[in-house]
Amino acid sequence: MITINDIMETNRMITENKLDVRTITMGISLRDCAHPNIDQFCRNIYDKITKSGEFLVKTGKDIESEYGIPIINKRVSVTPIAIAAEACKTDTYVPIAEAMDKAAHEIGIDFIGGFSALVEKGYTNGDRILIKSIPQALATTDIVCSSVNLGSTKAGINMDCVREMGEVIKRAAELTRDREAIGCAKLVVFSNAPGDNPFMAGAFHGVSEAEKVVSVGVSGPGVVKHALEGMKGADFSEVAETIKKTAFKITRVGQLVAKEASKRLGVPFGIIDLSLAPTPAVGDSVAHILEEMGVESCGAPGTTAALALLNDAVKKGGLMASSHVGGLSGAFIPVSEDAGMINAIEAGSLCIEKLEAMTCVCSVGLDMIAVEGDVSASTISAIIADEAAIGMINNKTTAVRIIPVPGKKVGDVANFGGLLGRCPIVPIRNQFSSDAFIARGGRIPAPIRSLTN
Amino acid sequence: MKLVVTIVGKDRVGIIAMVSNILAEKKVNILNINQNIMDGFFNMVMIVEMTDDKVKLQDLQKTLKEKGTEINLDIKVQHQDIFNVMHNV
């Protein structure tokens, strides 16, 4: 039996603490769309995406209104295009990205992900064409997201691709320089990318997934922060318990939404992603949770430990609330999308080096970080290599979504708008060169911990 | 379908009458009412059940929202399951 207090608590979480479901993401396999003629392939994927996702937005809105829980985004992820389009006789996949964009606009979703390649061990011809197409594809489309997985615990790191992605990111920034280099905000480089992640920019429909699935990403940093506000001076056992209980409640809502969406769309339920995803709105910040735990400003000594506790407690609380947990499932620390992170950068307490340390204990990586436009491609590649190494050795997902904004310097701010927020230009304090390191190429061998058989 | 109706706003004469009239018109049965006044603010939670398949939840939500706004009340209608899943294991 629910009590009046339960009802009031739930509604307060929604109205005051900004509890929401961040996304319902429908994964769609495009493996049956292959065709040597790229025009026919584009028609095939357009038809499949628009037919499969026709009722996604309406279903999301219906559930939102019936349960009174905001569902912020409706998204689609597709089979990595480097795989689906490999049979096309072409030297560019840009028209495919345009077909994805058109299909996504047609069904009214917020983002479509899967302009992706998985190259941790090496390139196929399709992978090469896709990666070359990324800058132009991101410049000519609105809501297509792209990702490249270039490292894993099992395969090591493809350092040729690390080098190439530094250049791809610079090129993507250049082609969208009139829009704060927004192309780079839609591009993420992974190590150990999961195939069932509902969050952008890294969502794609993994090759081992079913024909179609519905997955849900929850949110709710504001709810966790509010719960901790009543815990001033409590020890960490109590803090962890409180976060677990809160994460359980948040995730149960996600599970309910996922189950309903799956039933109404006639598409199997995939996973719940337990990530705490912040938004730029005040009161929806992961950094503020860490500060509530007692660090004066995010980035101060103690921040990594606080984040480790938060990340672990969210998983423990969320696990029991859902029948299938997957995706990234951890606290996100995207700088531009988190009001507390932005403040911490501006206050000088948070830097890219501390963020790198934080990525060792949380999901996902160096995310939505704007840097000066003249940072070299090899420095960006070297930052990617460092993150990929953290993921590879620690058997976890890490990612880099870095935006070298042309013409901007430290002290300037890049405004991306909407959920992507705004980011003060983050200094890269270490000005020494990584050119010779990145020029080597080849593969970093898989670590000893990959030999588990 | 069981629903939770929450009504919050400044107290005045006729709130319960207004809400229950609308519910009766839409053939919605009231199962439980919990109401109090705190600092002049009216708080009410009702558990209700829709009995007529022809009545759409969206219409009920819209009618109550509009009538509520006219007299400065915030009226929400939500499916009961969101509270059940959150607070029961």
TrEMBL record, chain A:
Instruction: Cite a single Pfam family from the UniProt record.
Output: DUF711
Q: Where is the signal peptide?
A: none
The domain of life for this entry's organism is: Bacteria
CDD domains per UniProt: RNR_PFL_like_DUF711 (cd08025)
**UniProt-listed InterPro entries:** UPF0210
SUPFAM superfamilies, per this entry? PFL-like glycyl radical enzymes (SSF51998)
The record's similarity note reads:
Belongs to the UPF0210 family.
Matching PANTHER family: UPF0210 PROTEIN MJ1665, UPF0210 PROTEIN SPR0218
Q: How does it assemble?
A: Homodimer.
Cited NCBIfam families = PRK05313.1
Could you tell me what this protein is called?
UPF0210 protein HNR32_002467
From TrEMBL, chain B:
Q: Which residues form the ACT domain?
A: 4-78
Q: Which PROSITE patterns match?
A: ACT (PS51671)
Q: Which domain of life is it from?
A: Bacteria
Q: Which family does it belong to?
A: Belongs to the UPF0237 family.
What's the protein name? UPF0237 protein HNR32_002466
| Species per Swiss-Prot/TrEMBL record | Pectinatus brassicae
Q: What is the lineage of its organism?
A: Bacteria, Bacillati, Bacillota, Negativicutes, Selenomonadales
